[in-house]
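ERR on first pass: missing label on line 2. Operator R.T. fixed the label and resubmitted. Corrected input:
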Amino acid sequence: MAKKQYAIIGMGRFGSSVARALSGMGFDVLAIDADEQRTQEISNIVTHAVSADSTDEEALRALGIRNFDVVVVAIGEDIQASILTTLILKDLGVPAIIAKAKSELHGKVLGKIGADKVIYPERDMGMRVAHHLASPNILDYIELSPDYSILDMKVSGSMLGKNLQELDIRAKYGCNVMAIRQGEEMNISPRAEDRLIDGDILVIVGHKDNLTKLEIEYQ
Ligand code: ATP
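pass 2 clean. output:
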């Protein structure tokens, strides 16, 4: 299978981090930014770096943007540029467009004009940090959909020494323990009789309301 080709538009903190990570994984990455200094900075990390205004349809066409499998629009501040760019990419027939949004409204517009996935890095990271601050046993919180999330919870207090059957998280809270992590080790098919010890981290999936109840109970 041919390696996927990625183009990232906007080399701010988010866009350049995506570009670096994909390059590090060995993918071909085209980095685009209107600011020449920004493209210069990333040029020895990615396959190609080009200075271009992504609201200029001809410029994108000339770069052969429609031949890329995935294009990430990582422009945040200039909402108009982000929307115009997404619209042009859609018109040109890019198969998968991932667009970063600064606000719910911005994200809604991006979705309506054809972004295949809208991401909210600031909002999502804010939520993850908030859950950790509210309850230090929550090490991470990842939103799967508007209703469902995954959380990583450090085993503590009354959980210690119990097994999953005794905890009865599924019946009490309607949530599922998907895995138990201990350091680098990951038990991905935990059994009812698995006993929890200090240092264990539960990876739990569930409805947000139920996860909140669980967080409060074990904070
Ligand atoms: P971050 O939070 O990721 O640092 P941001 O959300 O603040 O970024 P901006 O700084 O607005 O986003 O934009 C990121 C990059 O996008 C900037 O380097 C900017 O030069 C570039 N950019 C903005 N508009 C365009 C455009 N029309 N064409 C190409 N690049 C653009």
